[in-house]
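@channel anyone free to eyeball this complex?
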Amino acid sequence: MNERARHLVAALTGLGLGLAALGPGLAPGFVLSYDMVFVPDPAFTALTFGLTGIVPRHVPSDAFATALATVLPADAAQKLVLLAIFVMACTAAASLVPTTRLLPRLAAGVCYAWNPFVAERLLLGQWALLLGYAALPWVVAAAAGLHDPGGGRRLVRSLLPAAVGGFAALAVSALTALAVALVSPGRAGARERAAGAARVVGAAAVLSLPWLVPGLLRPAGVPGDGSAVGLFAARADTPFGTLGSLLLLGGVWNGETVPDGYGAPVTATIWLAVVVAALAAYWKWCREPRWRRGLAAAAAAGFAVAALGAVAAPALEGMIGLWPGFAVFRDGQQYAAPLAVAVAVGLGTAADRAAGARLPGVAVAAAAVPVILLPTLAWGAAGELRAVRYPDDWARARQIIHADPVEGDVLVLPWAAYRSYPWNDGRRVLDPLPRYLHRRVIVDDAVSVGTTDGTTTVAPEDPRAVRLAPAARTGAPPVETLRAEGIRYVVVDAEIGSQRPSGPAAEVLRGPDLAVYRIDGIAASPGDGVPIAPVVAGWGIASLVVFWSFLATGTTLSLPLLGSTKPRSIPPRRRTP
Amino acid sequence: MRIAIAAVVGVLLAAGASFGTVQLVDNSQKDPVIKPLYNYGSR
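replying in thread with the prediction:
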């Protein structure tokens, strides 16, 4: 079997895993879960590019989803992205195992695409982070080969899925690539290592420009609420404490996004044995000289960052106090991604040894064990990920608002960031209205998290939401206040009837799922957005670098990433005399 | 090649078994009481 056929089998296995994991989510409609918000007929608006002055966490992933929805129905585009995560993860991890045997590669691919990290982040709706996660094995290989001809271009290409994912995905990938570039190259001198690290930082910086520029230029500055460290720190979801849970690739901060049944003592203990065996096999038998030590360093560094908020919260709070940019380390568990690569490659290496020792049963078990130990990721994570359609009221509201020639913004009530709509079976989701409507939509962006002490709220970041909060929080904001802020419409998408603007506002729509109120005589919207020219320049530079990365001689768009490692050939069997 | 086919079949069987189990569990659960919730989640 040639290399291309091996990649194909790994990709098909990833596709099978994706189909099994998404289940009912693949039906027509949209999967809406926590941060995963896709809408029908999305448009490129100021929000898409982070020009409205809010923190651009959704840049450029929203632009990617919108671009995809111009050639596909938006719900099909969502399924395509979600399936691509599984296909890429399985293929990339399989390609990193230094063997020509197929089964060990599949063991690594299955482990990397089907584990607690993927399950928890999928339930949390962080598809953009998972895009970067899926391509992380390619990043490892590319960072180790930076000094080869075309190494810089290959690194940029491997970072592309993370760049699409945005700041969190790129932070994880850049940290991994940096560790590999600094530690891996065996005989490279200090100057070469420094040059490699500089190229990693340069590539990550350029690919960050689409979100970095609007983030730095937003009038309210870079936010960093140190009080949120405790909220988003890793937590124990197995009997082995927070650090043990992180080692097992779980430990997400949100207790509601742990798959059903995960962390039960028996299965968690078996999974611990698998992970420990995989890491031992990685250290003992994985002899790939180009990235072996670098990936180990990246996994260790990632684990340390993942644990930071849980074991040294005051230190992280102090760092955020010094520079708000360190807030990127608050949601620590996402930095366990390089550890997942090491575990997957270790499992593949162990399976390779087993296959070499004529123990194919062990190798088959290694390929199947991640799925067997985490069955509740199947069928849309036990029914948690289901496709739903937006109610008709929403479509009518959009028609009314878009047909109005009078400019003005939209305010959303109730004043909260997340919803649990009955039509979405009560699952939590970030309010989709800012993406659903093509006007500037002001919604509360203060995030509330339930804790043992009650509810803790992270301070809002959108300056306009901050200004409108005192009035909006009452559930009946005075029309005069809304006029002064340039609010043309108030949309109520929960608790309909009990919330509405107080004063002369015309009710233009009232249905069971949505109510819309129009306000006349409004002032011009205050301009507190981001200047367009630097953002366009940032997109232009990033696009040019991506274009350059595909210009290498003989490179095609289809397989520039797959040939990331040169598989070690199996030595011919000796005949016993 | 036979090993590869066995692996793929194994994964599919495991996925099928998982699917069946989850379907049983899912169908046996009662619908939760839906009330307005505005939190991002709970720790």
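from a first look: Residues 3-386+537-564 of chain A form one domain.
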